[in-house]
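Troubleshooting entry. The earlier prediction with nicotinamide-adenine-dinucleotide gave an output that would not parse, so I re-checked the input for stray whitespace and re-submitted. Clean input:
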Amino acid sequence: MTPLTTGPAGAESEKAVEVLSHWIDGRSVEVRLEQTAPVFNPATGAVIGRVPRGGAAEVDAAVAAASAAFPSWRDTPLIARSQIFFAYRALAHEHREELAALITRDHGKTFPDALAEVMRGLETVEFACGLPVHMAGMNTPNVATRVDTRTLRQPLGVAAGITPFNFPAMVPMWIYPLALMTGNTFVWKPSSHTPGATQLQAELWKEAGLPDGVFNVVYGGREAVNAILEHPGIAAIQFVGSTPVGRHVFETGTANGKRVGCYTAAKNAMVVLPDADMDMVADAAIAAGYGSAGERCMAQTLVIAVGDAGDRLRPMLEDRIGRLKIGPGTEPGVDMGPIYSAEHRASIIDWIDKGVAEGAELVADGRPFRHPDYPDGFYLGVSLFDRVTPAMSIYQEEIFGPVLGIVRASTFDEALGLINAHKYANGTALFTSDGGAARRFELEVDVPMIGINVPIPVPAGYMSFGGSRGSAFAQLQMRGEDSIRFYTQQKEVTIRWPEPGKRAALSLVFPGN
Ligand code: NAD
């Protein structure tokens, strides 16, 4: 395996740090130090590396490499492509702990959580290993006299993926396996906040035997993204990230003639009916609200408690909050790591201040928390609000931090109406022991990913994933059958083999049977 670094940057800091590089045409590209940005370890606050800030030139080089690699990758027999996928799956599985350690180092989430992320990402790689089956088209004989039809699925060309900081392995693994298995080549623009696992994934593809140029990585922010949106050599883009950036990517990418799917922010709510198992609900709310410091698009950040459920649940949540251990994600027994950046930590504190000013009752206040051993780490305690109402901005907006809010509702219908009226629609859940209520929820809730007594209903890796309303700008979901459609041009071929010696008479009538 090639080394992670292109060289130490000791001149700039007291301690030498790693300098990462773009990955283009199967190799690291040398970068100048002045074109890099710092990478932090949120558990200590220390600068641990530098990541390049790419722009139009780097995107252009990556697209050139991907375009050159496309014809031969497109024509590589399915079984040969599949063998590379199996090799990649085996390598990524073998390196799962290394990937997880890099995620914990850069993001801050606990090591077991990072490992679970890698395993959930691998589910989609495993799905892609079966590509010879998935790529099968449809043949229909005798659609008319001696006429057959055939449906082909062909790759589009160069596809790009733009991904967020919070799942450095799982979210990209929901994108690139599908783009590659369908025969496209790929340019990945990852988040610059969590680059360690990115670099390793690129290196593992090379080791698995993926031809150079098929998989490329360009780091950067707005400039690199805008270059992707405008590049004539890119046919399709999948984006995962915040709503304002997702809207920009969708509008600009589609205006430039590309297929675009953007999966964006969320404000997920779980409804709790009075007949639910409250111990299970309390565990679920704590896990889904504070796991990964609330930095998950499928986090449950609102608990809509119906009837007396709120009064019974609140002390149970307080009790669990009191027992949570916050610290470095590498330490065994830690439940929640730090926030990924100092800026984001400050923005979460602003949201808590706003909730207090808006009149929500702050039951647990995470703002004063400091870790005694890591005073410079980006730690924050967990916060719990009660009496959150739909008029409040902490109800309406995504906070993306360890802040959970209880909303009181009188009836099931009121709770359902609240969820269906929210501007975001990513995931939701119902906790109940009433099968009839669960069935109604499943049919009537206007949110695409639903859990019944399951707080984080992320569908299995071979199924589709994605939200609606403000949580997605897309015609299709990502992964599964939807992504196969997204990444292929469908062709319908109509074929006639006339009976030997027999020719139909010339006719200008529109062809029928
Ligand atoms: P982000 O929007 O800041 O960044 C996403 C990507 O866009 C990154 O690669 C980033 O470099 C790039 N980017 C950032 N600012 C940009 C700009 N002004 N112009 C062009 N590109 C820009 O998101 P994030 O903070 O990395 O991730 C958190 C967000 O992602 C949350 O809103 C979360 O809900 C969402 N998310 C959604 C899903 C989903 O499936 N719906 C999954 C994970 C995360």
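This one parsed fine. The CA atoms of residues 88 and 205 lie 6 Å apart.
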